[in-house]
Amino acid sequence: GLDRPMFTAEHYQRFTGEEVALVLRMAVQNRRKWQGIIKAVDGEMITVTVEGKDEVFALSNIQKANLVPHF
After folding, report:
1. pLDDT of residue 2
2. Residue 4 domain flag
3. Ribosome maturation factor RimP C-terminal domain location, by residue (predicted)?
C-alpha cells in the first residue's frame, strides 16, 4: 500500500523526494516522531528535510518509517 513500511537503505533511496513519517528508537532533539521529505541516503544515514531544515538520522535509529500518502 501507499503507507508501506520501509526497512532498507534501498527503500529510502527509491523514495527520495517523497514524504516520510519516522519513529525513532532514541529521541533526536527530544523528538522521536519526525515527518519530512527524504533528501538523500548516504550509507547508513538518511537526510530528511523537516520544516525547511535538513535533519540527518541513522537508519539503525529508525524504529518505523512509512511513506505519507498524498491524494
Report:
1. 60
2. no
3. 6-71
pLDDT tens sequence for the chain (71 residues):
566 677 788 989 999 999 999 999 999 999 999 999 999 999 999 999 999 999 999 999 999 999 998 88
- Cell digits for 15? 523514495
CB 57 within 8 A of CB 8: no
For residue 20, give its domain range. Answer: 9-67
Q: What is the distance between the alpha carbons of residues 57 and 69, in angstroms, rounded to a whole number?
A: 21
Sign of CA dihedral 54, 18, 13, 22: positive
How is 32-55 classified by DSSP, letter by letter? EEEEEEEEEEETTEEEEEETTEEE
Residue 2 lies in a domain: no
Whether the CB-CB separation of 19 and 3 falls below 8 Å is answered with no
